[in-house]
Write a structure and sequence with these properties.
4-stranded antiparallel sheet; 5-stranded antiparallel sheet; mainly beta
Amino acid sequence: MSDPAPRTRVCFTLCLTAILFGGCLRAASFSFTGTFDWDTDVQFFTFTVSAPTPDVTLRTWSYSGGTNFAGDSIPSGGFEPLISLFDATGNEMNPGASGPCTGDTGNPLTTLAPDPVTGACADVYYPTSNAFPSTPWNPGTYTLALSLYSDPAVGPTLGEGFLIPLQGFPVPSNYSCMDSAPGVQGDPPTVPVDAPFCDEWLPGTERTGNWALDILNVDSAQELSPASVPEPGSFTLVALGGLGFLCLRRRR
């Protein structure tokens, strides 16, 4: 899992940073930051909405950098993230992939800008329409898993685990700089094969393990320790065994 060092969580129930985010959010919003040590790390969160809510939004900031809802300046350089989501029964919802580039929308929340080093737009902006195209979020407690872009939850429930362990890699381990990950080490290779967080967009570029996540317009949200990861159905998570590598390349 991610580094156990303290992380920042800030709850806003008023219209703090309303100008930055283009309006007042009716419920609370939370900002989290942390650091992964390994490619196979996954950080879990839960968040709750108590009534039908039309504008729950999820946003990462650490790939290209920016200012999160808490008003903190997040540096660029973090790994490319992926968000996997599960409803209250543990069933997988539409995932939140990074990108694409948006250009300047006039709102930092919805603007996915290119990273100053790689030129890729690889943060995640996940509005309500990604999960519920024509309806609000239903009341309930949702589970969010933040992982490296190439290690999604396999679904259809949380209990099925994540792709990379199920393909054969041990946990924890690094895989993103492998020889079988085409082009990521550069030509000639400039990054050690066992290093973490190789970038898929600029060969020979190693990112950091830093992540930053906003969960906006919910009633509550919390970051979970490994011991408190929620379990669906029978509340038994399958063990995350070892496994191989699948590069989920997306065009920006």
